[in-house]
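Troubleshooting: if your tokenizer reports a length mismatch, compare your output against this known-good record of 141 residues.
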Amino acid sequence: MMCGYALTGGNRFRSDGAAGFTLLETLVALTILSLSVAVLFGLFSQALQWSRDDSRAMQARVLAQSLLARAETSPPGSDEHGMEASGLWWGLHVSPNGKSDARQTGLQAETVTATVHWAAGGSEKELALSTLVLAPPGAEP
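Known-good structure output:
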């Protein structure tokens, strides 16, 4: 029995009846598989980075909201700054709001702005939230 290839009707088959893939077909399949895995790995890596960035932004948002809530109950007398153990640094800025009329209400409005900074992906990000706080007239911001 002779071992070889014969072409019949455009189909390839081995004349000895053995089935299988050629070395070239196997190499092409492995190349396609390795490229697909590399692309998927890149996508998953990018998705993890976005998830970390979103988590830090959420932490910053929660910190800014808690700073504003604290300022609403007891307005700070001056600007404050600090740093959290998680690596977020913040500032609380108080400024008078020129639109309030303390003579009628007995209170003056102050704008309190909480700003939180953090590092993400090699750059610095910032989130700023503001609110109005009522304070007794004559209170120094």
